Each structure stands twice: as C-alpha cells, then as structure tokens.
TrEMBL record:
Primary location group: membrane
Taxonomic lineage of the native organism: Bacteria, Bacillati, Bacillota, Bacilli, Lactobacillales
Keyword NAD included in the entry's annotation: no
Record-level GO cellular component terms: plasma membrane
UniProt name for this protein: H+ antiporter-2 family protein
The organism of origin for this protein: Pediococcus claussenii (strain ATCC BAA-344 / DSM 14800 / JCM 18046 / KCTC 3811 / LMG 21948 / P06)
Length: 522
C-alpha cells in the first residue's frame, strides 16, 4: 500500500515539474508575439523592446549553473520551490509593470526563476525515477519542454488578441500557485550535502563567465553594424575566455569544486553537450527567423503562424513519452544521431523547396522532420547526460547540459542573424540596382532605411508612408517589393544552409563520441 502511494506521489510530482518547465520555456518565446503591443503601450524604441526579451535570456543563462549547484548543496526540492515562487512573483509584477524599465527588471527576475525550474527539474525527475520508469518520465518531461518552446507564438497570439499583453504574464500566477502547492506536497526531498564546503569563487567566476559570453553575443545581435573585433563585443568574449581558463584552473585546485571537471572525461557526456548546443543553435534559434518569415513575408497572423507551427510541437507531445521508453531499448547514440539527421533533412527540404512567393505548405515536410527530430532527441539527451556521470553529479550535469542548450540558442540567434543580414543587404543592393526606373535618391533612401531597420522590417519599410513615392510610377512598387522579398528569402536560404551544416557536423561527432553503454550501466 505504501509503495503504491509513493508511486502515485512520484507521478504527481512529475506533473508539478512539467507545469513549471512549461511556463519557464513558454516565456522564452511567448513575449515575442506581444512586442508590437508592448511597444505601443510604452512607446518603446527597438533597443528597449529587445531588452524585454534579452533580460530574460541573460538572467536565465547565467543562473543555470549557480542554481544547479545550490540545489545539490541545500536540496533540489527547496531550491525548485523557491525558483518557482520567484518566477510566479516576477510574472505578477510584470503583469502590473507601469513602464518598460520595470518590465525589463521583472523579466530578469522571471529568468532567474525559470532557469532554476529548468535545471533542477531534470535532476529531480532523474532521482525520483529509476530504470524503465526514468526513461518514460524523462520522455514526458522532454515532450512538455518541446511543446512549450514551439507553442509560444500560438499561446501569445491568443492571449494578446483576446485579452492584452499583460495576460501573458498574469496567466502564470494561478498556474504557478498550483505548481507550488503540488511541488510542496509531492516532490520527494532529495539528500543534500551540508558538510561540503561551498566553492564561492567557482560560483562567482562561472556566473561572470557565462554572463560575458551571453552578453557579448547579445551585443553582437543587437548591433548588426558591430564587427566581432568591436570592443563592445570582443572585450566581453575575451573576458569570457579568460574567465573560463581561470575557472578550469581553480576548479582543479579545490577539494570541493563547484563543478567536478571529471564529468567531461565521459565522451558520452561531451556528445550530449554538443547535441544540446546544436539543438539550441540550429533549431530553437531558427524558430525566430521562421516566425518572422511566416508573419512578415508570407503574411500570416501570429495566430495563424502559431497554429501552423503546432505541426512541429505536436510530435514532441505525442512521441516524447514513447521516445523516453525507447531509450531503454535503443542505444542513445543512434537516437541522438538519427534525430540530428532528421532535423538536418528538414533543413535540406526547406533549402530545396523554399522560394519567393512560397506559402507555408512548401515547409510541411520540413515541419514534420523538425517535429520528429525534436521529439526523438530531447529524452536521450537528458537520460544519456545523467547516466554518463556518477549519481552525485546528476544535478550539475543537468545544469551544464542546459547551459549548452541555452548558449547554443544565443549563439545560433547571432550566427543565423549575421547570415541573414549579410545576404539580405547584399541582395537588396543588387536587386535595387537592377530597377532602372527607380530614382537614385529613392534608391539611396530605401537602402539606408532597409539596412538600418534590418531584414525583419523589410516589408514594413517598403509599405511605410516614407515610401509612398514608389506608387507614383506604374509598376515600381511591385519591382521594389519583389527585390526586397527575394532578398529575405535568399537570406533565409543562408540561414537554413547554416543550420544544415551544424546538424550534419553534430550528427557525425555524436555518433563518434556517445558510447554504446552509459557510465552507470558500464
């Protein structure tokens, strides 16, 4: 009878964890849909809007390792509930923010809470379940994670259209309270190591290191005119490298380091980190540019875009638990490599079929392959990372893998953005130069406007009041629109080709690095 009660308690605890990570990951993408409404509400500049997104991303990334370690020291259940409470309070405050500055602050608070919920949830699930049940539980966890990432545009579109932008934060409050109560009642208290000396130096250095890397990438993303050698970017990235070297040195010297670097002696663990990094950089970062393509150039509304992208996330919801069970039967090397190849195949299909004036239907095969790959890869990444290290390192292994996934997303947004912008600017220049009846002054003004606004706003620029002279010459507007649209679609082809290369390289590396048997089963 007691065993049955404990078994039911574990599954209720899994439900609480899944509710929490759904909120945490949903908030990474859901705000994007609401940005135009927030801009009107606060009369924000583009830089201020970017920081509403970046504040969450930055604080989320720099808190992952720190909170993972605090969970190992003070107990994962305690830290998980504290982070869940912090996220809920941040959501409530964000829904009432009177100006953009406070909203940015509250988004940062949300990011800290969200990072703890994400990093601790995987280790909580891993310690509550064993054997085949662990694979199934991690599969369910992964399916919810995949669903939340892809359903942000849909959920955000519904809330903004039928309520207001404040609803995207307010809806987290009752859900968060329910998750807190369930967590208190059902999550099993983990053993923690109070006797271990806390590595304060490692905590500070690792946090500063991640901050420098992520903030450097954000600087590059926010300022397309900055080269990598620009001191705003280069100084931060160089500081991140120096801090990384110092962190490795200091961790080798300590008896109780923040991260036992021996976890990287497992090639399987390194393989899962590579897979997580490329999943973030090649797929999750790609969602940003895919959403803009569908909304700003194909002409779909946020709701229409969200519904169509549900084709991707539906596979995660359905296949996640099945894939989790398969991790006990199929070697993770094959699952992870196969998933990377499926997503690479989706990119190849998009590269071959996407063209100017295409509708979303040309991407259906790609969406299916993306969905299958995303559904197949998350459970084995989680289970392999955990089983590739000693049980005492499960919490930190979870945090490290999540840092690689989030770092990959930030890296991907920047790299894919550079590929898009460079191709877009080049093709705009060549496209406008071939329009012979376009006055030189108008051509110069259009180029400046398009380059300054960036590829995302190409359609908005040519339809702005300042471009009304294009309608005065018959056929001119159509020629300019064709040139701008061609430039964006060709830029998207560069983005897709870059993601394809990333998936191909990662598939080869993961097949080589991920061993046949995990550490705990060797």
């Amino acid at each position: 009878m007691q065993n049955a009660q404990n078994n039911a308690k574990r599954w209720w605890a899994l439900a609480a964890v899944c509710i929490a990570i759904f909120m945490a990951l949903l908030d990474v993408t859901v705000v994007n849909v609401a940005l135009p409404t927030i801009q009107k509400s606060f009369n924000d500049t583009f830089d201020q809007l970017q920081w509403i997104v970046n504040a969450y991303t930055l604080m989320y990334a720099i808190s992952l390792l720190l909170i993972s370690k605090l969970g190992d020291i003070f107990g994962r259940k305690l830290m998980f509930i504290l982070c869940l409470s912090l996220f809920t309070v941040g959501s409530l405050a964000g829904s009432m923010a009177p100006n953009d500055s406070l909203l940015i602050l509250f988004r940062g608070i949300q990011g800290i809470g969200g990072s703890g919920m994400m990093s601790l949830s995987m280790s909580i699930v891993a310690t509550m379940f064993q054997g085949r049940e662990r694979g199934l539980a991690l599969g369910i966890w992964s399916s919810i994670a995949g669903l939340s990432t892809a359903s942000g545009p849909l959920v955000g579109g519904l809330l903004v259209q039928y309520f207001s932008w404040r609803a995207i934060f307010l809806v987290n409050v009752p859900i968060g309270i329910i998750a807190i109560i369930m967590s208190i009642l059902f999550i099993i208290k983990s053993n923690h190591t109070e006797h271990v000396k806390i590595d304060w130096i490692g905590m500070v250095v690792s946090t500063l290191m991640v901050f420098c890397f992520i903030f450097g990438l954000i600087q590059k993303e926010n300022h397309a005119n900055y080269d990598w050698t620009n001191w705003h970017v280069a100084s931060l990235l160089l500081a991140g490298v120096l801090l990384l070297v110092f962190f490795i040195w200091i961790e080798h010297k300590l008896i109780s380091p923040m991260i036992d670097l021996s976890i990287f002696s497992s090639t399987s663990f390194i393989g899962t980190c590579i897979a997580a990094f490329v999943l973030g950089g090649g797929m999750y970062a790609f969602y940003t540019y895919l959403t803009v393509l569908m909304q700003n150039y194909m002409g779909y509304t946020a709701l229409q875009t969200g519904f169509r992208q549900m084709l991707i996330s539906s596979f995660s919801l359905v296949l996640g638990p099945i894939t989790g069970s398969l991790t006990n039967r199929i070697r993770p090397r094959y699952l992870i490599t196969g998933a990377l190849l499926l997503m690479g195949g989706g990119m190849l299909s998009a590269l071959l079929n996407l063209g100017y004036s295409s509708t979303w239907t040309v991407l259906i095969l790609s969406f299916i392959l993306f969905g299958l790959g995303n559904a197949l890869i998350n459970p084995p990444i989680s289970s392999t990372a955990i089983e590739s290290v000693e049980s005492r390192h499960i919490g930190m292994a979870s945090g490290v893998v999540n840092v690689f996934r989030q770092g990959g997303t930030s890296f991907g947004v920047v790299i894919l953005g550079i590929m898009l912008t460079n191709t877009f600017n080049s093709k705009v220049t060549s496209g406008l130069s071939h329009i012979h009846n376009l006055p030189e002054t108008a051509k110069t003004g259009l180029q400046k406007g398009l380059f300054a606004a960036g590829p995302f706003s190409g359609n908005a620029i040519i339809n702005s009041p300042q471009a009304k002279q294009l309608h005065q010459i018959p056929g001119l507007f159509g020629q300019v629109k064709t040139a701008v649209f061609h430039a964006y679609y060709q830029g998207m082809n560069s983005v897709i080709a870059t993601s394809l290369i990333m998936f191909s390289i990662a598939a080869i590396l993961c097949f080589i690095l991920i061993s046949i048997k995990p550490h705990n089963q060797a």
